[in-house]
Amino acid sequence: MKKEWWKEAVVYQIYPRSFYDSNGDGIGDLNGVIEKLDYLKFLGVDVIWLCPIYKSPNDDNGYDISDYKNIMDEFGNMDDFDRLLKEAHNRGIKILMDLVVNHTSDEHEWFVKAASSKYNPYRDYYIWREGKNGQYPNNWKSFFGGSAWEYNEKTEDYYLHLFTKKQPDLNWENENMRREIYKMMKFWLDKGVDGFRMDVFNFYSKKEGLPDVVDNPDGIYINGPKIHDYIKEMHEEVFQHYDIMTVGEAPCVSSKMAPLYVGEDRKELNMIFHFELMDISNDPKDKFIKVPWELKDIKDIFMRWYEDLKDKGWNSLFMNNHDQPRMVSRFGNDKEYRVESAKMLATLLHTFVGTPYIYQGEEIGMTNAYFENISDYRDVETLNYYNEKIKEGIDEEIILKRIQITSRDNARTPMQWDNSENAGFTNATPWINVNPNYKYINVKSALEDRNSIFYYYQKLIKLRKENSVIVYGDLNLIYKDDKNIFSYVRKLEDKEILVILNFFDKEVEFEIPQKYKNKKFELLIGNYETDNQVKNKIKLRPYEARVYSL
Ligand code: ISL
Ligand code: CA
Where is each Glycosyl hydrolase family 13 catalytic domain found (predicted)? Predict the structure, then answer.
């Protein structure tokens, strides 16, 4: 595998609204990020992915952009941004911007013009259709509920919005529009930003004629016919001229399809985020309903992505983000074994093949919020879901139970800095409530405890820097069918490491495979007290993780 800085990097995702409020208005901001750069440097991360900070009416917390070249009022201004970039670079930290160009806000001047008249030059920047016999133009559904079409009085037709009606889809068929997007990307790259995380990039291309969806939208508005042409053009026009990192958010991309987007010979993207793991416990018809997962399925997903990308392209590793429940609540145990399970899951993400992404607060084991009242929720997807299900006549208690485990707000509660009021996030009323467990889950107490999740992450990140086998080594799964243990060996030249993870709260035995029995074991990291005395068998404690150098 070719060496690249973004393969060796660890990325930290910041949701600025909830990170740190520097000016007492209850909303996190860019100066708040600057104030915490030393904290991130101490953790050891190489790259920050900033969720959208552009001007926005915030129907979807910044994923609805009304001006790509200006900063959201609540977050600060362009001087603040320039300072953030400089301060981050001074510390050797790179900045990845969120690029949201499947859609804009309906308040973007392009859309305002487009919606004003059928003859406006910007009209074709968006996707317009006449209704069919007084009905919507086709059967496409918005990801956030209802039809994907909204009627526009002024022009007596409908525009497409795959997300909220305040997020009209751009028309990627329009070449002028594409050129403007590339220009805008260069504006940020010329400032010195280090790459892009590309929001739902595989939705850009829509199939000609916009046919009804029969069983699934793949090939219609997901992975549409021209998607590779667009990404190649973007590479040609923009990416190839800079030393940057690109990661595309790619719902509904299979591991078989992935090399087409990230293949090193393809001139498209460096990595994608796939959603197979995130969808694993979702009821296929309703992601708010969670079904149990099995370790076997998690192993299958990790292994399949490893094998299908091997020698072709690079993977990204994450178990939560700003759209997902908290990792420790979903895949670990957020009660008795919160600390152990958070460390165990981190061990997987930081020793598997791919670039690890940490979502803010993950490094201190922040948990789901489990808010009990609908009035505590802010997320448009959650609120739409609630209203839709109430209308369908479903019991409120049942709806709230689903929302408690699935809502995107679980990940959006303020970062817990200390045990003072509002978790030290703000001295005003926060835009969304803090998780009451900030009293004991917070950065300050993590920094005071040598055994905290924080220091475990710091050590994992350091190990990655010191052991190129973790980045570039091959991987071999051990005990494929074991229902409790995820274990593998990484190997690069004469360097070998063995990773052993107990995924559950029961003690289990791990038998050292024959070929390693006579090796010298040296513990690189583990989440319990242990020594280097390894015989034939290891008794693993609940959620125990061990990484040995052999
Ligand atoms: O949540 C999802 C995966 O389980 C999908 O619905 C999908 O990945 C997601 O909704 C797309 O997310 C991105 O684009 C949205 C925005 O609301 C999200 O915050 C962003 O990450 C629209 O821009
Ligand atoms: Ca603020």
Answer: 13-412
